Amino acid sequence: MGDAASGRGHVVYPPRSAEDILKDYRARRSAILRALTHDVEDFYAQCDPDKENLCLYGYANEAWEVALPAEEVPTELPEPALGINFARDGMNRRDWLALVAVHSDSWLLSVAFYYAARLNRNDRKRLFGMINELQTVFEVVSGARQQQSKERSSMDNGGRSKPVKIENNGKATDEAYGEDDSDHGETLCGTCGGIYSADEFWIGCDMCERWYHGKCVKITPAKAESIKHYKCPSCSSKRAKQ
């Protein structure tokens, strides 16, 4: 299974370094996130249970495709889970998407470590560390659904919808909330002044509404999940003085 601009094709330059493999992983991950969030209606429609065994592919050009598995044996790359369409109508839609997400995470790792087999032990460990800094597809898909539910609840209660505190690592995730990079193009980190990037974890202060790199204010995605109202160091300091 290759990654030409049109989808499938021969891989002329497979990634060799840990950094290049990470780029390949992130691109495929972004494609799958798009299928399961922003393009979910299209993805759902393509997974007709009456069709043959289908797989969800994410390509290095950030395109996704629902298609039949490769015919060659062995395949050029590990194959995604086979037959995801058969379970579509036999499960709750939310649970089915979560199942596809979990299988997609497994496939993304298998492709990354297929390439990483040629790396030495330290580079493989470093690669896994970089991958592990990103949220899994399952975490993002589940988190997007939970956030949308919270926002609807906030609006139903007459309260204003607060900004999404967690900026997930992936272009498709931003779009799942009706946002894209252009919406944050001029957003600067309140600590270091760095420009917003969807590739990094950001958190917004509910007091001053400024945005910060998670690493600048020492907040991880996991820690942010348990914070209902985040106050940045500056706002926390002002409140303490009062």
Shape: globular
Ends apart, CA distance between termini: 62 Å
Which percent range fits the helix content?
40-55%
pLDDT below 50 for ≥5 consecutive residues: which ranges?
1-12, 153-183
The helix-strand sequence is HHEEHHHHEEHH
| Biggest sheet descriptor | 2 strands, antiparallel
Strand order of the largest sheet: 1-2
Structure summarized in a few sentences:
This protein is mainly alpha-helical and 242 residues long. 42% of the residues lie in helices and 6% in strands.
Description:
This protein has 242 residues and is mainly alpha-helical. The chain contains eight helices and four strands. It has helices spanning 18-36, 40-46, 93-115, 121-132, 137-156, 171-176, 221-225, 233-241, and strands spanning 55-58, 64-67, 202-204, 211-213. The strands form two sheets. Strands 1-2 form a two-stranded antiparallel sheet. The chain has a two-stranded antiparallel sheet with strand order 3-4. A hairpin with a 6-residue loop joins strand 3 (202-204) and strand 4. Helix 1 (18-36) packs antiparallel against helix 3, helix 1 packs parallel to helix 4 (121-132) and helix 3 (93-115) runs antiparallel to helix 5. The chain is globular and about 65 Å long. Residues 1-12 and 153-183 have low confidence and may be disordered.
